[in-house]
Amino acid sequence: MEKLNLICVDDQREVLSAVVQDLEVLGSWLNIEECESADEALELMDDIDAEGDFVAVVVSDHVMPQKTGVELLADISEDSRFLYTKKVLLTGQATHSDTIEAINSARIESYFEKPWNADKLVQTVRALASEFIFDKGLDYEQFHGELDQQVLLSRLR
């Protein structure tokens, strides 16, 4: 069975814990990892790739020390190993220009403002992880019961 990872990044521990808690319902088929910085997330992604596993989705805050979430997601977009990794920016402080930069440079798939709607975040991450499986050409059968049904139906047509 393929090992799919969901990485959540936020420098504020209480926010990171809240995001992970909301996404825990996906833990039966996505390995949920927590990182408190962009550099920690990139190191983890290197380790996951070296083990032959996959980073399906990265959910990142924007305002962090050293490297912003937009910079992190842009770095991921430029790394050919993570071509199909889906990216979500979750922030309360991004400016209009930050958001444009995230879309253009980091090629994010989704944007959430804090405070976020937990159900909508779970739905979005489920759909993005489902898209990742098909985009990467993985065997979707092993995840069939967990996949977003709209994505499944659209990809099987």
From TrEMBL:
InterPro entries in the record: Bact_response_regulator, CheY-like_superfamily, Sig_transdc_resp-reg_receiver
Residues annotated with 4-aspartylphosphate modification: D61
SMART domains according to UniProt: REC (SM00448)
Domain Response regulatory, chain residue ranges per copy: 5-129
Entry keywords, A to Z: Phosphoprotein
UniProt keyword annotation of Phosphoprotein present: yes
Database matches in PANTHER family: RESPONSE REGULATORY DOMAIN-CONTAINING PROTEIN, STRESS RESPONSE REGULATOR PROTEIN 1
Descriptive protein name: Response regulator
